[in-house]
Specification:
Pfam families: Abhydrolase_1 (PF00561). This protein has 281 residues and is α/β, with parallel strands linked by helices. It contains 11 helices and 8 strands.
Length: 281
């Protein structure tokens, strides 16, 4: 793929500008990035998938080149995703997510199965239980914002987060640490200062997933060297959705798409190709 042929720009979605890029043609694949980084984490997948599909990647609200949220208003990433699909005239898509991006993909599978061709997740799975208590966001929480902003040392926080993220990566962590740090260094770190709770669906997602159509393809990729919590989250999703295809990625940790890109790409493309053949029968 000639990278000069891909398009990029911003879309005004739910009151905020979101940065996106797209390339290729055919069925649409949307790449959903992890927390603390941005859509650049998909460099190896953007080109590889662009040879076979129409591939879209974008910076979630509060990350990369997209606008920051309003700390006075709660939002959900899923609503932005659906808005992006509408503006780019995508009726259905294959969703590929990692960590936070996996949580978003699972939210879409639960709330909008009619928009989904398939879902592929890595580095996370079932991110909440039905018993978890999520307090509703209220504008009265704005009184906490200024004091919270003074309590967070962003530089120290980024260094600690980066160190912890590297620890969750596998044996190839050294080859990605510079690229990973560049994204974290550019990160606004808006979230630890202002977010009252994660902009996700929350505990109701468990029942929604149980009630979803049973024939929607789901691939769960688990890095064998990922953290225990992340692996357990993925395995809990696999236990909830028995029809899911689970693949363990050797020599891969939390950022498996960057650590072992050839293996990750092969796994994704093989899964999507198989789904396409089944769909065409």
């Amino acid at each position: 793929m000639n990278v000069r042929e891909h398009s990029k720009g911003t879309l005004f979605i739910n009151g905020k500008k979101l940065y996106f890029e797209e390339a290729g043609e055919g069925e649409t694949v949307i790449l959903l990035h992890a927390h603390s980084v941005d859509s650049r984490m998909w460099n190896a997948q953007f080109e590889a998938l662009g040879n076979h599909y129409r591939v879209i990647r974008y910076d979630l609200r509060g990350y990369g080149k997209s606008e920051m949220p309003d700390q006075r208003r709660f939002f959900r990433h899923i609503d932005d995703l659906i808005g992006l699909m509408q503006q780019l005239h995508v009726s259905k898509a294959h969703l590929v997510g990692l960590s936070l991006g996996s949580m978003l993909a699972v939210d879409c599978l639960a709330l909008h199965p009619e928009k989904v061709l398939s879902v592929s997740v890595a580095g996370s799975g079932l991110y909440v239980t039905e018993k978890d208590q999520w307090l509703p966001f209220t504008e009265s929480e704005q009184s906490e914002v200024d004091s919270a902003a003074k309590e967070v040392n962003i530089a120290s926080f980024k260094q600690e987060w980066f160190s912890g993220l590297l620890d969750s990566c596998g044996q190839h962590r050294d080859k990605i640490k510079d690229e990973l740090w560049r994204m974290i260094e550019n990160w606004s770190a808006w979230q630890p200062v202002y977010e009252r709770r994660w902009p996700l669906v929350g505990p109701s997602i468990v029942k929604l997933l149980r009630d979803r159509p049973s024939d929607l393809p789901l691939l769960i990729m688990i890095g064998e060297e990922d953290s225990i919590g992340s692996r357990q989250s993925s395995e809990q999703l696999a236990a909830l959705i028995s029809s899911a295809e689970t693949v363990y990625l050797p020599q891969s940790g939390h950022m498996s798409n960057m650590e072992t890109p050839e293996l990750f790409n092969h796994t994704i493309i093989s899964f999507l190709h198989k789904r396409g053949n089944e769909y065409r029968k």
